[in-house]
Amino acid sequence: MIYVVKPGDSLYSIGQQYGILADEIAYANQIEGRMLVVGEALLLPGIPPLPEPIRDLKVSGYAYPYISMPVLREALHHIDEFLVFSYGFTTMGELIPPVKDDLPLIEEAWQAGVRPYLVLTPFGEDRNFNNYLVKLAVTDETVKNNLIRQLLQTVQDRGYAGVDVDFEYIFPEDKEAYARFVGELRDVMHENGYEVSVALAPKTSGDQAGLLYEGMDYRLLGESADRVFLMTYEWGYTYGPAMAVAPIDKVRQVLDYAVTEIPADQIMMGIPNYGYDWTLPFVRGTSAAKLIGNVEAVRIAQEQGAEIQFDETAQSPWFRYEKDGLTHEVWFEDVRSMEVKLRTASDYGFRGVGYWNLMRPFRANWLLLEEMSG
């Protein structure tokens, strides 16, 4: 059951009302100090009415190699595929490994029965997206063949189950070559018993303008990979105005287009595991929101005496507070918004959902997923 906190509520009073220990509520929702926030959504595990079961969804999640091991281990109990972010490459197609060793994460994943995947990004030595590297990888045969050969060797040596390709800002003239690269990589991986997925920017039409979108052909990439990961988040982002990170009305526009180009059972729907704290007023080119976790967002509301609101259109929680003479606006995810996203993925018949990312704890989400899955 999802319970929204009202004025005068306490963990004890809610527990008494529903026959659950206050400590169980605190544990499930990672509440410190037993203080509640008006408008906060609490998961009451095992308490009727349980949500209607959803179809069986595969679950994946990205993480950097420096993730906290306790946070990772908790997530591994609830996911099927683990995507390690990330390997880059040079202009010669030489792989650049993550800054921190990825082997401990690979071993943890296999021990938990979770399949780990190598994430390939066009990161050079500066660890930033570089579309010139994309062009080389997809159009220069020598670079492409070297990169694919090294990927196969690394997957075999490190013990990965396959490769997830996350190329962004692809030049429009390279979109067909990019899809061919993904297809050639998949063919090589298949010959050796591995899989390939590809991450897609959130498009709403085939002719959507913008460098983030024009180089991605949903149909071609869907045909070239075993599955796709829709990056259905970042409407609210660091340098944009305050708004929900993944408003469900905007997300559904992407999903409606995606299913016209890619079979639904091949799609993983992206879900954000984070929020942002903006200072107002927003000034484009100057304002920069602070990235925060969902549990952290509730603690900020608690510390600042804010009341959490819920936007019915975006299906996302938010609140405002004043600090040091500045107005802040926070948007994040809670179990209400997560339930809507999980049910949406189920309703569309998708293969599953994938979290960007697993770096921040969100226990109530995992318990909700467990209960919704029946």
3D architecture notes:
Helices cover 35% and strands 21% of the residues. The protein is of the alpha/beta class and 374 residues long. It has two domains: 1-50, LysM domain (Membrane-bound Lytic Murein Transglycosylase D, Chain A); 58-273 and 334-372, TIM Barrel. It has an eight-stranded parallel beta barrel with strand order 3-4-6-7-8-9-10-16, surrounded by six helices. α9 links the parallel β9 (227-230) and β10 (267-272). The protein is globular.
| Number of E strands | 16
At CATH level 2, the architecture of the largest domain is: Alpha-Beta Barrel
Strand ordering within the main sheet: 3-4-6-7-8-9-10-16
CATH level 4 superfamily of the largest domain: Glycosidases
Radius of gyration: 21 Å
Q: What's the helical proportion of residues? A: 25-40%
- Structural class by helix and strand composition: alpha/beta
CATH level 1 name of the largest domain: Alpha Beta
- Beta strand %: 15-25%
Count of separate structural domains? 2
Given as residue ranges, the uncertain stretches (5+ residues, pLDDT < 50) are none
For the sheet with most strands, the description reads: 8 strands, parallel, barrel
Give, in order, the helices and strands. EHHEEHEEHEHHEHEHEHEEEHEEEHEH
What's the CATH topology label of the largest domain? Answer: TIM Barrel
What value does the average pLDDT take? 96
Helical stretch tally? 12
